[in-house]
Amino acid sequence: ATLGMENTLFANCTGLPKEPQYSCAKDAATMLCELIGNEEYFDFCKVWTEKFEHPKGRTTEITNTNRLVRFYQGCDGGKTGFTNEAGFCLAATAKRGGMRLVSVVIGEDASKHRFADVCGMFDYAFSAYTLKTVADENNPLTEKLRVRGGKTEEISVRCKRGSYLLSGRGEKENVKIETKLPDYTSAPVKAGDTVGEMIVYKDDVEIDRVPLVAGESAEKAGFGDRFKAITGEWKF
């Protein structure tokens, strides 16, 4: 429920048939998206073969059932599955040039068909779509934020994370950005503190909200700092 998987009910931790268990391709995609948000996942899922040594010295080699991690460019994760009721299934992810895709098929009548169909969807998406950068987390905004009571009068502002738009190749997007910042903030401010937000619209529909954070710290001014600021304005 937390992930919004409204058409899924797990009756065990394996996914093997057990009443009243059920799921769907969309929810499987949602679950995989949650998994790939953890970088540690890729330490295991993209491994093609692995050898395990038994206590008595014997070794066993296992091979990843998701053959796409070896044979499809950019595929670095996913999971196969099969039951008599669900047929041959595959949830896979692939990344090229900063764009990551997730594809899920269920109910295939043969193992090779699930791989072929997922590859076909990946091929189509990578060729027909591109990922456009709307906001770059590494570049500060042109706007500055004034600081009251600080050793510095203003600080830079940047996006806490990047914002991207999946767009058809050659299409012109009607994208607007609304930046919400206060007139000023009060010291002390730490780099990374949230100071505002950026709202991204496509065709006047909100598609993303990105926190805006302080690009650097601003220490609170002491008496000496304020005295210097006052005397520095005097002319002799």
The SSE order reads HHEEHEEEHEEEEEEEEH
CATH H-tier superfamily of the largest domain: DD-peptidase/beta-lactamase superfamily
- What is the residue-mean pLDDT, rounded to a whole number? 92
| Count of alpha/pi helices | 5
Q: How is the largest sheet built, in terms of strand order? A: 10-12-13-8-7-11
Which structural class best describes the helix and strand composition? alpha+beta
Could you describe the 3D structure shown?
By secondary structure, this protein is an alpha+beta fold. The chain is built from five helices and 13 strands. It folds into two domains: 105 residues, DD-peptidase/beta-lactamase superfamily (Beta-lactamase); 92 residues, Peptidoglycan synthesis regulatory factor (PBP3), Domain 2. The chain has a six-stranded mixed β-sheet with strand order 10-12-13-8-7-11, with no helix packed on it. The mean pLDDT is 92.
Summarize the topology.
Layout: H1 25-35, H2 42-45, E1 49-53, E2 59-63, H3 68-71, E3 75-83, E4 87-96, E5 99-108, H4 111-128, E6 129-135, E7 144-148, E8 154-159, E9 163-168, E10 175-180, E11 184-186, E12 194-202, E13 205-214, H5 223-231
Parallel strand pairs: 7-11
Antiparallel strand pairs: 1-2, 3-4, 4-5, 6-9, 7-8, 8-13, 10-12, 12-13
